[in-house]
Amino acid sequence: MSLRAFARAFVALLRAGALESLAYRGEMLVWALTTTMPLIMYAFLGAVAREKPLGRFDEEHLLAYFLATFIVRQLTSSWASWQINAEVRDGTLSARLLRPIHPLFAYAAESLAIIPLRLVLALPVAVLLLALAGPRALTHDPAIWALWTTSMLGGWLLSSFVSYAVGALAFFLESSAKLMDFWLAGFFVFSGYLVPIELFPPWMRAVIDDLPFRYQLGLPVELMTGAHGRAEALFLVAKQWGFVALAGAVAAAVWRRGLARFAAFGG
């Protein structure tokens, strides 16, 4: 397929995905409501910070952190793992394989197409962040904002590649959904989603630094709320993209081997 034909096909998939997201906007709203745990955690930790700051977090900065977490979660998550599982089990993946565009690009287009609807949910929270926490709780450095944009893309790619890799394990297992649940359990604890990583003991932070979970969500939130200077931010974003490259390579390898198995068994 030529680059022009690929671009046309990808745009068509984006358009179809956007229409589908509008058709199932009720399900999207339900999904969004399941991602409000950071706001619940603020209710608990904010009461503590009101009495005494938790590290660099007074009540205002803690509110900014958890509102930023909600926003980043809306824009960087991927559900492709469950979709791949379902399509492998019911055989509908076969029809997708007949299309001229690679299935992983199709899953990516469907994920990107729903971002405008997620922005509808995230933008009011962003306004709320500025109104309640104030601009003092966010970074004012344009270079950090540029790195934040890069880290948001990295967070989305990392989440997507992990989702593709775990989903592709369905070629070898009856279902890989439980493995994704296991990954999500690690994500909730070690990404900064429920508790800022800065509040963990030093020895645990050292471990978390070398796990991919923080780079899916915690790093963009930290950059947004001014936790790092330029040099440290650049190092962390470079490390994030190292995880992106690794996850992409693993996803591609698992998909290729799994697809060969799928074809061999007449999928």
What does the model show?
This protein is an all-alpha fold and 267 residues long. It has one domain. Helices cover 76% and strands 0% of the residues. The chain contains 14 helices and no strands. The protein has helices at residues 3-23, 25-33, 37-51, 59-76, 80-90, 93-97, 103-113, 115-132, 142-168, 177-190, 202-208, 213-216, 218-224, 230-264. It is elongated.
The overall average pLDDT, rounded, is 83
Q: What oligomeric arrangement do these chains adopt?
A: single chain
Number of helices: 14
Please give the share of residues in helix: over 70%
Strand content: under 5%
Distance between the termini: 24 Å
**What characteristic shape results from the CA principal axes?**
elongated
Provide tags for this entry.
267 residues, mainly alpha
Write the layout of secondary structure elements.
Layout: H1 3-23, H2 25-33, H3 37-51, H4 59-76, H5 80-90, H6 93-97, H7 103-113, H8 115-132, H9 142-168, H10 177-190, H11 202-208, H12 213-216, H13 218-224, H14 230-264
